[in-house]
């Protein structure tokens, strides 16, 4: 009898040990993902509940990583039986492979230059205090209109890295104050801010901006009030949230008709990408401003370089 009882208990224990794990069990999925992605223990992980996926037989599980104010989102797909886990992106051949990001890019009411209704849209998320952004800004301003006078529209989105750049957000807010007052003068501010980046500090930013404004016939009283009251902070917060939704973790980050290009890129490399996208757009109508449903504010006519 004792032997039989032991046998029953041993079989039960063995069965419990060999029971397959299920990826819908968050306690089982988290260590698996940490092992897969080499996520250190200091990084916090949260796992969403499964939701319908674009492929039949799978569920989508979103995983969020956070550490010291930075965040990263990852998408996993789990088979209905919970046994297979897929990590990657799902595409629909009838739409742009970058459609998920295109749907999140909102360019209406953003500063822009270049050809209206262009077949190619370049969206730049940048930080006025970022040295790499300064180089990319010069690249775009020196080359886009000169090389692609009718083919490219450039939009600027503020994404100040407030954790490491003391005056970046205040600079972004000042830029939007200029934009509110005179949309075309924003690009003068953009060029000026990057040109004088190393001279600007959190303490002298306002004085520097007002000195700039005097050279451009801007209303300095109105501009000073806008900066003091932080009137444009909501606009910057909205763009920062948009950038986070796009999982942007560095500046500059460019999107060419939705294609993500993280970090600064030399002009010859960028030109190659633009040329390839233009060639593709000749036979594919899902490109540029028409496909992406971006709206160009009527108050923002194409500006000269």
Q: In the CATH classification, which architecture of the largest domain applies?
A: 3-Layer(aba) Sandwich
Mean pLDDT: 88
- Percentage of helical residues? 40-55%
Element order, helices and strands? HHEEEEEHEEHEHHHHHEEHH
Q: Would you identify the CATH H-level superfamily of the largest domain?
A: Glutaredoxin
Q: What's the story with the biggest beta sheet?
A: 5 strands, antiparallel
Q: Using the CA coordinates, give the radius of gyration.
A: 25 Å
Global morphology: globular
Residue runs with pLDDT of under 50 for 5 or more positions: 11-15, 289-305
Question: How far is the first residue's CA from the last residue's CA?
Answer: 93 Å
SS-derived structural category = alpha+beta
The total domain count is: 2
CATH topology-level fold name of the largest domain: Glutaredoxin
Strand content: 15-25%
Compute the number of strand runs.
10
Which oligomeric state applies? Answer: single chain
């Amino acid at each position: 009898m004792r032997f039989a009882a032991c046998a029953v208990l041993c079989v039960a224990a063995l069965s419990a040990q060999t029971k397959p794990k299920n990826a819908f069990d968050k306690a089982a999925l988290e260590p698996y993902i940490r092992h897969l992605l080499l996520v250190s223990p200091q990084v916090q992980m949260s796992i969403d509940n499964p939701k319908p996926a674009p492929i039949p037989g799978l569920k989508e599980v979103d995983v969020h990583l956070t550490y010291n104010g930075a965040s990263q989102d990852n998408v996993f797909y789990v088979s209905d039986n919970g046994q297979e886990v897929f990590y990657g992106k799902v595409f629909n051949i009838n739409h742009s492979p970058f459609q998920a990001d295109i749907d999140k890019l909102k360019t209406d009411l953003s500063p822009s230059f270049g050809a209206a209704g262009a077949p190619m849209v370049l969206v730049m998320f940048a930080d006025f205090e970022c040295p790499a952004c300064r180089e990319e800004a010069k690249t775009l301003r020196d080359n886009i209109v000169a090389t692609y006078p009718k083919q490219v529209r450039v939009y600027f989105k503020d994404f100040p890295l407030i954790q490491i750049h003391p005056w970046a957000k205040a600079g972004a807010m000042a830029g939007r104050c200029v934009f509110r007052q005179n949309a075309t003068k924003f690009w003068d501010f953009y060029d000026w801010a990057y040109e004088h980046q190393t001279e600007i500090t959190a303490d002298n930013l306002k004085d520097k901006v007002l000195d700039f404004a005097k050279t451009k016939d801007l209303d300095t009283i109105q501009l000073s009030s806008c900066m003091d009251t932080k009137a444009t902070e909501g606009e910057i917060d909205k763009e920062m949230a948009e950038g986070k939704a796009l999982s942007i973790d560095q500046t500059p980050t460019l999107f060419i008709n939705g294609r993500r290009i993280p970090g600064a890129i030399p002009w010859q490399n960028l030109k190659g990408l633009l040329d390839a996208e233009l060639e593709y757009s000749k036979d594919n109508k899902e490109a540029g401003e028409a496909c992406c449903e971006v709206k160009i504010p009527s108050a923002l006519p194409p500006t000269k370089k």
